[in-house]
Amino acid sequence: MPALRPSPVPLPTQLSWRPGHFTLTRDTAVRACPGAEPAAALLRTLLAPATGLPLPLSPDGQLVLTLDPQLRGLGEEGYGLTVGPDALLLRAARLTGLLRGVQTIRQLLPPEALCDLPRQGTPWQLPCAEITDVPRNAWRGFMLDVARHFQPVARLRRYVDLLALHRLNVLHLHLTDDQGWRMPVAAYPRLTEVGGRRPESMVGPDGSTVRDGVPHQGAYTRAELSDLVSYAAARGVTVVPEVEMPGHTRAALAAHPELGNVPGRSLDVWTDWGVCDTVLAVDEPVLDFCRTVLDEVMDVFPSPHIHIGGDECPTTEWAASPAARARAAAEGLPDTDALRGWFLGRIGAHLVERGRIPTAWAESGEGLPPEFTVMAWRDPEHTRLALKRGHAVVSCDHRAAYLDYAQSADPGEPQAQPGAVVDLRAVHGHELPDDTESAGELLGMQAQLWTEFAPTADHVDRLVFPRLCALADRAWYGPAPWPGAHGRLRAHAARLAALGVRHGPLDPYVPLPHRSEKEQA
């Protein structure tokens, strides 16, 4: 019986179905041409658990993976895939393109191919097809906040696999914040020993006075993070680290109060959500501390982009600090509010000197040096303004890409960040400005999950999926009519089920007629 035609997510740029199907059997072998060996190894590793097929390497293999640098139109990540009745050919100009094609091969197989246990009796068939596939956006990312709620490294590896399946290429780790410090720094062990623990957590939204009374802690080892980087690279995913400064630093100040603006003060790791008003001081020892931390970050993470947070930095402590006021005057700044831009400029210069790209949360990029990559999150117009200022920009519009907001108006939805509903259609409709006349470069888009309201793996899965699938489709393929995209996402649920992803709703919430909210709940 011929294989059914699947619904890939993201949708390939060009896809033409052909008659017939190709069947994987115990006699099927893989031919890896020079340079394609890592992609062949990944394909064999990913298909083995469910299929049980050996897929040995052979110069006469029917699954052919080849690199051809002359395929210039495919760029860094594009690939061509031809599935015929007797053979499969995957071609790309770069290894990364082959890695993307491997994930499409997985999606052309039955969903059971994604399981991590043998599936007996499943015909491992791919429909014959001709595919040419090139991403619309270079940056297709997902940020996971591991500071508010620690995520074990095994969970991060699982998310790398999920990103790779959806041809997303950036895992952005939010490693530090007021509520926790997860990044090991050899010169400052107290950052994780003290800053990696808090006695309890807030229950409810910002302003709540309720606490759960449950200690929360966690930190990574350097070896764990280095292994994660290698694991991700083998799947074509870059891990971008983020260490917040000069605000969102209460956990660091709990470990090292001498870095703060009030001499002799003792602080705890913050147990509230929201934005804490304690920030780093602006003297040279603090800048040296930040440079030392970032040097270790750069040793562990080879990512070109190093994220230093940068936003939501209250300046009340600087205004009250004689030392901060003196620093502002000495630097010729109009007031202590301007110290934020000065601070980020100094730290950014350190990263640039070491060949990295400083990256920060920002609204319009105002006050940031031009070498900063801006993650614009508050308003789409800010993306346009940052581009006009010459910045490279990643669009992170909170109304389309913040997955901590509720995904439906259903009263039965688990607690989420207070705010407007960000449903599946809103994520897929994430709009990017036309930057053809801008001085800057629009890199792409990224989804965010802040984890104040996602304490468990199931919470994370439900908030992230299927919305991240919608963003992946939008970021790779580009704008597409919603009915067709929605149909593909609904069909994709079978793959999520095979992967054990406990996802949120695929269909819009429709209130039942003639019933109160209480009755509907």
Beta strand count: 18
Number of helices: 17
* Mean residue pLDDT: 95
**Known CATH architecture of the largest domain:** Alpha-Beta Barrel
Low-confidence stretches: none
Strand line-up of the largest beta sheet: 7-8-13-14-15-16-17-18
| Named CATH topology of the largest domain | TIM Barrel
N/C terminus separation:
45 Å
Integer count of domains: 2
What top-tier CATH class of the largest domain fits best? Alpha Beta
In this structure, how is the largest beta sheet organized?
8 strands, parallel, barrel
**What sort of overall outline do the alpha carbons produce when their principal axes are compared?**
globular
Indicate the structural class.
alpha/beta
Any idea what the radius of gyration is? Answer: 24 Å
- Percent strand equals 15-25%
Helix content: 25-40%
The CATH superfamily label of the largest domain reads Glycosidases
InterPro entries: Beta_hexosaminidase_sua/sub, GH, Glyco_hydro_20_cat, Hex-like_dom2, HEX_bac_N
Family: Belongs to the glycosyl hydrolase 20 family.
EC number: 3.2.1.52
Organism: Streptomyces atriruber
